[in-house]
Design a protein that fits this description.
Elements (H helix, E strand, L loop, with lengths): L7 H13 L4 H7 L8 H15 L6 H10 L5 H9 L6 H30 L4 H16 L10 H17 L13 H7 L7 E6 L5 H14 L3 E6 L4 H13 L3 H6 L4 H15 L3 E4 L6 H14 L3 E7 L12 H19 L3 E6 L20 H7 L2 E6 L1 H18 L13 E11 L4 E9 L4 E4 L5 E4 L21 E2 L1
Parallel strand pairs: 1-5, 1-6, 2-3, 2-4, 3-11, 4-5
Antiparallel strand pairs: 6-7, 7-8, 8-9, 8-10
Helix pairs in contact: 1-5, 1-6, 3-4, 6-7, 7-14, 10-11, 14-15, 15-16
Length: 482
């Protein structure tokens, strides 16, 4: 049984090979982790090697001994056994064997954890399943967690981050591309682990806005997971095809297109057939189900860089708590999921109708439905606002009132094919708030960048509490359903 869980001889050979050929440690330190070793003394030695690497010091017997003495974990007998072991040339086979046994130990530990939460703590089955799935995901992804990171580790990681940013040529884009140049400048993109909320009143175009981002990403070959709780997947695809081909959405819906437009559509279909877009349009989903699906999908397709939920308030709660408590659990769950999977999670949100009673109907943070927890958990909150939506609505109300009074109505409203739009950055944990001007092309349900100068920035509201250092010949539409 024990032989199936560890091999001390293999562990000594790996450590001996590093001591005698330190130049291979860079590669090995990525392939194997400290807790993959079974013997605590071997873990300490490997940990000392990592510390020496971070300090840019020699990884040899004397420096390892010095580092272990410093932390009072030097075992001379263990060191002698390692130095006596024969160095190996084919380290990969040994590493694979050590990691296989490490995985078995972790799975054995997980079985004990399952028994504890199921029998001893008597947790509901849904919570048990969520715990098990999370642990399994961590094991399969080889995630290493610890209670604390020490200063040398943090400074080393920070310098690696700065060097990576410098290698990009001082690009303003650090996170995931939003698809809009000026918004990228304001946000540096959606960061890894960020919870991004995109909120608006109905008909403002929040789904159209995020689909522009989705289209930009899949055209770059990046993966996107989209949970559509309100709209069937085929309708999402129609909107994406309209964005790509500049064919009005209504023409796509009825198939009323010219020969050139059919040709353009077929070309777009060919591109979408190879797109890394995964859509779940189940419509009824709670936070546990979403977590389970996204973890599985991310495990199968590591190229996925962003997840989108349309929209947050439609998600089902767990249990019979008040709705605001359920929404709190959902928003917190999405934030923790973003951090766990190290990718931005974008959730669309509705706004309270109370704002429409104000003269200035531009949204504020307090306008988000069940806003308390959402506002707290979100790293970035964006509002989509188009003044023409209200101008058109007011015109219709005046027309109705005039007809009721038997008066002649002369319309003063001129409907435009392109309308001015604003993306209001209501909160940004690591950057400025402000306004970004876009143009909304109604027939295409497409947002595009306005002139570069059309931007207002407010730097007084920077939150420094947190910092995150990253149909013709084709009669069917191909889309992967999850």
């Amino acid at each position: 049984m024990q032989d199936n869980l560890y091999n001390l001889s293999f562990e000594r050979s790996i450590l001996s090979s590093i001591v005698f050929e330190p130049q291979q440690f860079d590669e090995l330190s990525v392939a194997i982790k400290k807790d993959d070793f079974y013997l605590p003394a071997h873990q300490d030695i490997f940990g000392a090697m990592i510390t020496l690497l971070q300090k840019d010091q020699p990884i040899d017997e004397e420096f390892i001994k010095k580092e272990l003495i410093k932390i009072k974990k030097f075992d001379e007998q263990v060191m002698i056994e390692i130095l006596s072991a024969n160095p190996i040339s084919n380290t990969k086979a040994y590493v694979d064997e050590i990691k296989d046994k490490s995985l078995k130990r972790k799975l054995l530990t997980l079985t004990t954890e399952i028994k504890r939460v199921t029998v001893e703590e008597e947790l509901p089955s849904a919570e048990v399943v969520d715990i098990v799935e999370k642990k399994l995901y961590e094991i399969t992804q080889d995630n290493q967690t610890s209670d604390f990171k020490d200063s040398p580790k943090m400074t080393f990681d920070t310098m690696e981050y700065i060097r990576e940013m410098k290698a990009r040529g001082n690009s303003v884009l650090v996170g995931v591309d939003t698809g809009f140049h000026e918004l990228n400048k304001m946000t540096t993109g959606f960061g890894k682990g960020d919870l991004v909320i995109i909120a608006a009143r109905p008909a403002m175009g929040k789904t159209s806005f995020i689909l522009n981002t989705v289209n930009s990403l899949i055209m770059q070959g990046k993966g996107v997971a989209f949970f559509s709780l309100e709209m069937p997947a085929e309708q999402l695809m129609l909107r994406l095809l309209s964005i790509q081909t500049s064919i009005p959405l209504q023409k796509l819906r009825v198939g009323d297109m010219s020969d050139d437009q059919w040709s353009s559509l077929n070309g777009a279909i060919d591109k979408m057939n190879s797109a890394k877009l995964f859509v779940d349009d189940q419509g009824s989903l709670n936070i546990n189900q979403l977590r389970s699906k996204l973890r599985k999908l991310k495990n199968q397709h590591p190229e996925i860089e962003i997840a989108v939920i349309d929209y947050l308030q439609i998600m089902q709660g767990i249990g019979n708590q008040d709705r605001h408590i359920q929404v709190s659990e959902i928003s917190r769950g999405l934030k923790m999921l973003a951090r766990e999977l190290e990718m931005p999670v974008v959730a669309l949100s509705q706004l309270n109708r109370g704002l429409e009673a104000r003269n200035d109907k531009r949204p504020m943070l307090s306008d988000i439905r069940e806003s308390g927890s959402i506002e707290q958990d979100a790293d970035i909150i964006l509002f989509v606002y188009r003044d023409d939506v209200y101008l058109y609505k007011e015109e219709k109300e005046r027309e109705k009132a005039a007809k009721n009074d038997g008066k002649e109505f002369i319309s003063e409203y001129v409907e435009k094919e392109e309308e001015e739009a604003e993306i209001i950055i209501g909160k940004q944990r690591n950057g400025p708030t402000g306004h970004v001007k876009l143009v909304f092309q109604k027939k295409l349900t497409r947002f595009v960048d306005a002139q570069p100068k059309a931007i207002e920035t407010t730097y007084e509201h920077i939150d420094t509490r947190s910092a995150n250092i990253d149909v013709g010949s084709n009669d069917s539409i191909s889309m992967t359903m999850i």
